[in-house]
Design a protein that fits this description.
This protein is of the alpha/beta class. It contains 9 helices and 8 strands.
């Protein structure tokens, strides 16, 4: 292994230790087991070589935001026992392609994406796990992504009608500039209502590098961590 790769491995190992300790501490404070929180490392803009180091360090779940980059990395790391999460905004004309390689799609927020994902998933040997992305923005405020809470039932029903999609739960992002505590408390209420009609959809993907503790205390089963593990994202030309 080259000197640069040895240095990078040490850097990622130290960062992973820190993040795992943060998760464990948040779980302890919330009276939860750390085994109930899955770390999804978001490798957007970072090379496949980092993914290989992460896998060697025990990471099992990797998140990607962009279709072209994700598709390439999945192919380059096909020999690794990883679960690939697509967490970025989905374009309807690319959703079918995403469904052919992702193991989990966390950003399903529109009815028309259901058909596209289901079409792509028919090329798989087993159903595609999906999370419904819910918006935590206040009512009436324009938001970047996520379904309004009132539309979740309709969206879940569409997933239930799809042959190759499996509803696993919800995903959310705390709004920019908002208090994450308030955002995740609201998410907990939305989730509680959702579980009444969908008791098996227990996954909750919430929390990133800056706010994972709040998400864990609110019941997150998956946290999506990028910079706290990988460092600042490299510049993209």
């Amino acid at each position: 292994m080259s000197t640069s790769m040895t240095h990078r491995r040490a850097e990622l190992a130290a960062n992973l230790d820190t993040v795992r300790a943060r998760i464990a501490a948040a779980c302890a404070e919330a009276g939860r087991s750390p085994d109930g929180v899955r770390l999804v490392v978001v490798t957007k803009f970072f090379p496949s070589s980092d993914v290989r180091i992460l896998a060697d360090l025990g990471v099992t779940d990797v998140g990607e935001n962009r279709h072209q980059e994700a598709e390439t990395k999945v192919a380059e790391c096909a020999d690794l026992p990883l679960t690939w999460h697509f967490i970025g905004a989905l374009q309807s004309n690319k959703a079918a392609a995403v469904a052919t390689y992702a193991h989990v799609v966390e950003s399903l927020d529109r009815r028309k994406l259901v058909t596209a994902l289901d079409t792509g998933a028919h090329h798989r040997a087993h159903p595609l796990d999906v999370l419904l992305q819910v918006s935590l923005d206040p009512a009436g405020v324009d938001h970047r992504a996520g379904a309004e809470p009132a539309l979740l039932a309709e969206l879940a029903a569409a997933v239930g009608d799809a042959r190759m999609l499996r509803l696993r739960g919800l995903m959310a992002v705390a709004p920019l500039g908002a208090d994450p505590v308030e955002a995740f408390v609201r998410l907990a209420g939305i989730r509680a209502d959702f579980l009444v009609d969908h008791p098996d959809a227990t996954w909750l993907s919430a929390g990133m590098s800056a706010d994972l503790e709040h998400a864990v205390k609110t019941g997150a089963t998956h946290v999506r961590i990028g910079s706290a593990v990988l460092g600042s994202r490299p510049r993209v030309q």
